[in-house]
Amino acid sequence: MADNLQNGSSGVLKRLVQALLGLSTSLVAVLFLLGAIIVSVLMVLTIDILWDGRLNAELEFAGVVVPFFDGLLLVGLFMGLLSEIRKEAVRREVAEKAIRILNEELENKVRERTQQLLDVQEELVRKEKLVLLGQVADTVGHELRNPLGVMNNAVYFLQTTLVDADETTREYLGIIKEEIVDAERIVSDLLDAVRTKPPRPETVEVAGLIEQALRKCEVPASITVRLEVPGTLPALLVDPGQMHQVFWNLITNALEAMPGGGTLEITAVEDQAAKTVLVAVRDSGSGIGPEQQARLFQPMFTTKARRVGLGLVVVRDLTQANGGSVGVESVLGEGSTFLVTLPTAKSETGDLSRHGQ
């Protein structure tokens, strides 16, 4: 019971202090003086009446004047204490705010370090996979290319000699040729992923690179191609062969993402401040989910059947080797956009010395 009384009195005192802190200093002083005078007068009146049953004017006057001056002294002391309490409250508020800011900064740093660790781990996994591929790429790749070349020549020979063959024979010869092309592409991706050569930069036009890549691709009649590549764009300083391979891979992927037809959009814009050109290859396919987007540029990851997941690895490695970067934006059901940023010939990053030439 004693504990309950103590807790109750502490709560009342705490609420009283909080209420006083919310008032102005002058108002607190006036209330304190009025309270002291009223209490003193009541006490004097009570004592006077109980003492002799009569009111003594001098005693009542003294009962007002004395507590007034005593109250002034106490008010001064109380105001000083109240001022210190307010300063302490402000200091605590400032300290709590500083602690909150520090905690937020620490949380941000922890998130940044965690993301950096994840990125490093992802890069280590990627390099380990590439090392493993490199151990077999040269031997297996060359061993496969020779028979594939022989098979391709044989199919070409049969297609030219069997002009009068029936429809079924021509159909199966076409299927064999398509399978050989797919196999050659897998071998090329495998070899390119593990032996990226240093670029030999030249001054090239963006439009020329894209048009060359488009000419090499077989665009189905069900797909509409839209080009927005201004002729006023600055020239790039990149390896034309490597960047041709980059754009060919991206365009081929975009076409394969639209088996039922659609629109292929290729746009290019200049960022004068960064001295770069951004090339966007956009398809109207089914799009890529967020989980798959995070793994798109990892070796051995693919969303397509009969692929080894190296095409985009080649795209990233070649783009980075030429001083650029590649990213992806995709929404399920709306298509995907691959963004390639490359330095212009007038940029400092696009210097021949950067490539060790």
For the record, the count of structural domains works out to 3
Please state how the strands of the largest beta sheet are arranged side by side: 2-4-5-7-6
| SS-based class | alpha+beta
- CATH topology descriptor of the largest domain: Heat Shock Protein 90
Major sheet attributes: 5 strands, mixed
Level-2 CATH architecture of the largest domain: 2-Layer Sandwich
Helix content: 55-70%
Average pLDDT across residues? 77
Classified by CATH, the class of the largest domain is: Alpha Beta
Total beta strands: 7
Radius of gyration: 41 Å
Number of helices: 8
- Measured by DSSP, the beta-strand proportion falls in 5-15%
Shape, please? rod-shaped
Contiguous runs where pLDDT drops below 50 for at least 5 residues: 349-357
Q: How far is the first residue's CA from the last residue's CA?
A: 89 Å
The CATH superfamily title of the largest domain: Histidine kinase-like ATPase, C-terminal domain
* Elements, N to C (H/E): HHHHEHEEHEEHHEE
Characterise this structure.
The protein is α+β, with helices and mostly antiparallel strands. The chain has 3 domains: 107 residues, no CATH class; 69 residues; 154 residues, Histidine kinase-like ATPase, C-terminal domain (Heat Shock Protein 90), CATH 3.30.565.10. Helices cover 63% and strands 13% of the residues. It has 8 helices and 7 strands. The strands form 2 sheets. It has a 5-stranded mixed β-sheet, covered by helices on one side. A two-stranded antiparallel ribbon has the order 1-3. Strand 6 and strand 7 form a beta hairpin.
